[in-house]
Design a protein that fits this description.
alpha/beta; 5-stranded parallel sheet; globular; single chain
Length: about 775
């Protein structure tokens, strides 16, 4: 096919769409089911309605081929485990008794059984459930979900493409099951898994599917020759099947690199590549392999992870270059649109001029369709759209919101000394022990306490004018008093104020900093039914006034025990926002760090002696390619030290991280120079404690003994057992006792019981020392 005919054949498609619905109907239905207020049939009907709505929106926008199978009640990796029969033994009876309840037991656990481990999906804030596999794992095909959802779409008249997690990515993201040797490699199960994928593909073909998409984002990471050989074998075998749809192998989040020639040679009919940040590398890769003759290329030229409008002229130039590389070129987003909010239309509080710079899922769909039309029919057919796009981009570039000379001058004046504590850790630790007087194995929490219905109602009442600011603040003071009183009675050593005034750990601060924009409806799934509204980081950052000092000092006035000041760190403020794309991330991180440094300084001046600066996104934002990591870690650790570097030796700096593979960044954790770090560890059975010990980590650490993402209440014996495991790696004088993460999403009854058990466990183990 010539370049001209490849252009004429261009179509618009997407890999996935937000699941929650315009009013988070899925969240409400699932949580209602958990609480017994929604029946299973009603939940299934809500899900079916949402799928139909999504397909209709895509088709009406002009998308030629809609995805199926991307919808999930909780997580698409969990769905894949069900599809291939990889149900852990402890969950099998629950799955057998009731498939839906068993599914949620795998996701959340029950009082009797622990859930699957949860961690971040590559370098996003989406969390997936980690498959547990071992040498005895037996895979069995269950294509019911995939087939049913494809048939739903087809029956509605849509051209549909089922989307599956690819077999190589599934195994590379899996971990050895409990009791299996830690050095077991799940990828060794590939030959056992491929026949199951073959069966699913055959079922999809029988249902009428002409194409199926296999997502292999793990291939944009550095891969060994053995792993690349596994890729070649997998797609040789799957491509060699006769009873299957055509195969589109999709990669995203980075450059495909050394896996590109492997897939280019494979007997599959199409490849999907990311042409946003990875455009140059993937273009070079295609040229090096001689293109994809006879194959379909899906070009992800619209950024599926950020919310800034596309540059039509730049994307069209990329697409024009690609026409010579493949038999057919289609247009898509760089990844599933799961990672962006639904629609800018309901946003009434953002200046319309600024709103014109933003593209959520609905607007990105329009961009994809517009680019496909321009590619297929010529740019003259979209001349008006190109002109409007050019004007919007120029408006953003010239806007005064993007540049503050005072902020830039302060950032430019930073020196290395600004990011260093005045004394080394050993001297600081002695000063902090003398000041705080804590026992061995001190107990604390991560920061937030349950956000009750009463608290949410108070915020709603304030917004609606049913109460005034004074009335709202009285409710907040009362909640802080209850939280502090409970912690004292329970016996916790270092307290928190509970964060009742905070809507979200990033949004709360973003709303008080210049340069940020907050949305009203910009919900994005983080995990399961947990949705967040990432703020938009649009311009230069500064802090007009203190943000947390008043509430922290109020809590401290209620107790003689130390109360932690609680801040969100600069890297997490970037990672959990939609960050500006018009300057290097390191420059933005420095601006945020300087704003937070002012807050740390004010907290210390007000008498706060323990200050926690959370950086759960430090590992999440780690580049997927090793070659890109040193530069990132340099500016990321510098930003944290700049935030905390001005405090006196006797002020104890904490940080917190959760739900990530910490072993990859132990040196960076060390480089933060925090006095204490708390980390998620309950689901991973204290793995991080071992990793810290192997590194020789010299400071204090609190690997979590209470998994807060499950409703189950661990008893004191379970927490004590985990604590003893932690002591095998970290000496008692440097070990803290704490939950995995904040308690915002938990209810008060389970929180009280779990923390009472945590304190009892600490006392038990302390008495054994």
């Amino acid at each position: 096919m010539t370049a001209k005919s490849a252009a004429a054949a261009a179509r618009a498609t997407v890999y996935g769409y937000p699941r929650q619905g315009e009013n988070r109907e899925l969240k409400k239905a699932v949580e209602g089911y958990w609480k017994g207020r929604v029946t299973a049939d009603a939940l299934r009907q809500t899900a079916a309605d949402l799928r139909r709505s999504n397909w209709r929106k895509l088709a009406e926008a002009g998308v030629h081929e809609v995805p199926t199978g991307d919808f999930s009640y909780y997580d698409h990796m969990l769905d894949t485990s069900v599809m291939v029969g990889a149900v852990p033994p402890r969950h099998r009876s629950a799955v057998t008794a009731d498939a839906l309840d068993g599914y949620f037991a795998m996701a959340r656990g029950t009082q009797e059984v622990a859930p699957l481990e949860m961690t971040k999906w590559f370098d996003t804030n989406y969390h997936y459930l980690v498959p547990e596999l071992g040498p005895d794992t037996v895979f069995t095909a269950d294509s019911a979900k995939q087939v049913a959802e494809f048939k739903e779409a087809a029956a509605l008249g849509h051209t549909a493409r089922p989307v599956l997690v690819g077999p190589v990515t599934y195994l590379l993201l899996a971990k050895p099951a409990p009791g299996v040797a830690a050095d077991f490699e799940p990828l060794t199960l590939l030959d056992r898994l491929l026949p199951v994928y073959a069966e699913v593909l055959a079922d999809l073909r029988a249902a009428g599917a002409t194409w199926a998409q296999l997502d292999e984002p793990a291939l944009v990471q550095d891969r060994s020759p053995a792993e690349l050989n596994a890729v070649a074998r997998a797609y040789r075998d799957l491509g060699g099947l006769t009873d299957r749809p055509k195969l589109l192998v999709a990669s995203y989040f980075d450059r495909l690199g050394e896996a590109l020639p492997v897939l280019a040679k494979a007997p599959v009919e199409g490849l999907a590549l990311d042409f946003t940040d990875a455009a140059a590398a993937n273009l070079d890769g295609l040229a090096a392999v001689g293109g994809l003759p006879g194959k379909r290329l899906v070009a992800g030229v619209v950024n599926g992870r950020n919310i800034w409008i596309n540059d039509y002229e730049k994307s069209l130039a990329t697409l024009a270059t690609l026409l010579g590389f493949a038999d057919r070129v289609d247009v898509a987003a760089s990844c599933s649109l799961l990672h962006v909010p639904l629609d800018t239309a309901p946003e009434r509080d953002i200046d319309p001029r600024i709103l014109g710079w933003l593209a959520f899922a609905a607007q990105k769909t329009t961009e994809i369709v517009t680019l496909a039309k321009g590619l297929a029919e010529g740019t003259d057919t979209i001349a008006a759209e190109i002109a409007a796009n050019r004007a919007a981009l120029a408006s953003r570039a010239a806007s005064p919101i993007t540049r503050d000379p005072a902020v830039r001058a302060r950032s430019a004046a930073v020196t290395d000394a600004d990011g260093r504590r005045s004394q080394p850790y050993t001297e600081r630790a002695a000063a902090q022990r003398a000041r705080l007087g804590l026992p061995l194995l001190p107990t604390t929490t991560i920061g937030s306490f349950p956000q009750t219905a009463d608290l949410r109602a108070a915020r709603a009442d304030l917004r609606a004018g049913r109460i005034d600011t004074a009335g709202y603040e009285e409710r907040i003071r009362a909640e802080i008093g209850e939280v502090v009183s409970f912690q004292e009675k329970t016996g916790l050593d270092v307290l928190v104020h509970g964060e009742p005034e905070r809507n979200d750990m990033v949004q709360y601060f973003a709303e008080q900093l210049t340069g940020y924009l907050a949305t009203r409806h910009g919900w994005v799934q983080s995990y399961g039914t947990r949705y967040v509204r990432p703020p938009v980081l649009a311009g230069d950052i500064s802090r007009p006034e203190p943000m947390t000092v008043r509430w922290t000092t109020y809590a401290q006035s209620l107790t003689d025990r130390p109360v932690k000041g609680m801040l969100t760190g600069p890297v997490t403020m970037l990672a959990w926002s939609f960050v500006r794309d018009d300057q290097p991330l390191g420059d933005t991180a420095r601006q945020v760090a300087l704003a937070l440094r002012d807050e740390v300084t004010d907290l210390e001046a007000a008498g706060t002696c323990v200050i926690q600066v959370d950086e759960p996104a430090l590992r999440e934002t780690l580049p997927l390619r090793a070659a890109d990591r040193p530069a990132y870690l340099d500016w990321a650790t510098e930003a944290f030290r700049l935030t905390t570097g001005a405090v006196a030796p006797g002020t104890q700096i904490h940080t917190h991280m959760c739900y990530a593979e910490f072993g990859d960044i132990v040196q960076a954790i060390d480089d933060l120079d925090a006095d204490v770090i708390s980390l998620e560890a309950a689901r991973s059975h204290m793995q991080v404690a071992t990793e810290l010990a192997a590194h020789g980590y010299p400071r204090e650490a609190g690997p979590g003994v209470y998994d807060i993402h499950s409703p189950r209440v661990p008893d004191a014996a379970e927490a004590a057992s985990l604590l003893r495991e932690g002591l095998l790696a970290i000496p008692a004088e440097r070990l803290w006792v704490n939950p995995d993460c904040g308690l915002k999403t938990r209810g008060w009854p389970e929180t009280k019981a779990s923390l009472e058990n945590l304190v009892a466990a600490a006392r038990t183990v302390r008495a054994e020392l």
